[in-house]
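Appendix B, record 7
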Amino acid sequence: MSNVGFIGLGTMGTPMAGHLQTGGHQLFVQTRSAVPESVKSGGATVCSNGKEVAQRADIIFIMVPDTPDVEKVLFGPSGVAEGLSKGKTVVDMSSISPVETKAFAKRVNELGCEYLDAPVSGGEVGAKAASLTIMVGGTEAAFEQVKPLFALMGKNITLVGGNGDGQTTKVANQIIVALTIEAVGEALLFASKAGADPAKVRQALMGGFAASRILEVHGERMIKRTFNPGFRIELHQKDLNLALSNARLLGVSLPNTATAQELFNSCAAHGGKAWDHSAMVRALEMMAGFEVRGS
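Structure tokens (predicted):
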């Protein structure tokens, strides 16, 4: 069994680390806040900084919110890079900039170490169920080395290409998710305002071509008004900002992605940055002066 480092024990990181422990791996962990009791009771060794994690582990996982957080974990004072030695592997499972990811990978490779970008989809539910989709960028050798550990955390695990390609795939995923949430929100708002029971409309649509995981899960959230996260709007805003900023660099127009971002911005402006991203429907409801509600 491997000595494994895990940095970032938040909503996603805690259950992911727990699955690695259940798989029999010795964990060396560090996080900004208190280490969850479930991780400590599983036998993890708590480290004081990323440098210590990297010194004691062969494979170091990172699961933090944004690009600057990853940079700080890797290259800040007492960061992971200071503790790396030749032959170790860094795996960033955060959702961050594809461009910056390539730069981070280059710096880690120059230290004689492998680097994988491996963002995930599936949210807190998928993290707890070990059913995450994992999109990986890096060398095939590093991927094969880490794949048994990925298998403890997820189901659909794909090596997409080189460094940065995993993050590019995650951005594409977030575009699709945001636009589908918007479509489901519009449809249920339309049906509800027209006098139909949105719960029954959703049930009918689940048997047809409009069926989707988002209609199933997020449509139910919209109808039942269960907007506790899940996946926070502020995190999806961050992901769409990556999409739009990288699209500008590529000379690509993403008009509907921009619209979805503005709806998220409206929710955040009304105190909703910590709402689940299914609460995008609230921005549509505010414009309509009407709420989606089942009977």
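Remarks on this record: The beta strands are 3-7, 26-30, 45-46, 59-62, 89-92, 114-117, 120-121, 132-137, 154-161. The longest helix spans residues 165-193.
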